[in-house]
Design a protein that fits this description.
This protein is of the alpha/beta class and about 260 residues long. The protein has 15 helices and five strands. Helix 3 links the parallel strand 3 (about 50-55) and strand 4 (about 80-85).
Length: about 260
């Protein structure tokens, strides 16, 4: 189970949020709660936490200051913003500090709790190299696969995933990555598919498109720039791949994201 710490200075909001979310359905467990950033840091010093969900506006230590400290001291903890007072300036700062996502009051009011948690868990998997990636990959294996591969093989696949996330702007070819993790091409291909749950090429496409989604949401840079930053120097090909995975063109995705943001209170 992934361990969660919830931080919000409003006692009722915090308790309500913890009680309403279907944590167990997504392999999550709330192991602690705190009313401000300072108490959250104290908890993190003495307990294992995989996911921090924090409000931004709090006394004693704000959510932004908490995130700065967590980024420095607890780099393996994933962070998500819980915002009941919509302020995009603070949210943008939180995203720059490494927040995977943000949860809004609107989403909770419309009873999308399961969708919210699924989105967060999916992003934690996508960002595995930045969130204790070796542990995440190992814990995510199906029981029958645990005994099928040695710790060395699983570590090699985890290293390959790390390479993909760190070098997604570069050309990535299976034979080259297999060589870098000291595995044969065919064996690496099979191990990667079994452990990660996707083929090597499908995983790269997914990682790149998810990275592009973040850039399209957070910046106003051109589609060509987003394509290059996501590992696709050919803008036309990037659009084709993006639509295959996301169901819409990059420009349409950006427009949809802006419309959603403008509807938020």
């Amino acid at each position: 189970m992934m361990k969660v710490l919830v931080v919000d200075d409003d006692h009722l909001v915090r308790k309500g949020f913890i009680s309403m979310m279907p944590w167990e359905d997504y392999n999550l467990e709330v192991v602690g709660e705190a009313s401000n950033g300072r108490k959250a840091l104290e908890f993190l010093e003495h307990h294992q936490v995989n996911l921090l969900i924090t409000d931004l506006a709090m006394p004693v230590m704000s959510g932004i200051d908490l995130m700065r400290s967590v980024k420095e001291r607890h780099r393996n903890v994933a962070m998500v913003v819980l915002t009941f007072h919509q302020d995009f300036e603070f949210i943008q700062e939180a995203l720059r500090l490494g927040a995977l996502d943000y949860i809004t009051k609107v989403e909770l009011e419309h009873e999308h709790m399961g969708e919210v948690l699924k989105r967060i868990v999916d992003k934690m998997k996508e960002q595995a190299p930045d969130v204790n990636w070796r542990t995440e990959l190992t814990d995510g294996l199906q029981e029958e696969e645990e005994g099928a591969y040695s710790p060395e093989v699983k570590a090699s696949v985890a290293k390959a995933v790390h390479i993909i996330h760190q070098e997604l702007q570069e050309e990535l070819h299976l034979p080259d990555v297999a060589r870098r993790v000291n595995m044969s091409r065919s064996y690496f291909s099979r191990c990667f598919r079994d452990i990660v749950g996707k083929t090597f090429n499908d995983y790269i496409r997914e990682v790149r498109v998810n990275h592009a989604k973040e850039l399209l949401s957070r910046t106003e840079r051109t589609i060509g720039w987003v394509a290059t930053q996501s590992g696709y120097p050919n803008e036309k090909y990037f659009g084709k791949v993006f639509r295959e995975i996301a169901g819409v063109l990059p420009s349409e995705f950006r427009k949809m994201e802006h419309e959603v943001a403008n509807r938020l209170p």
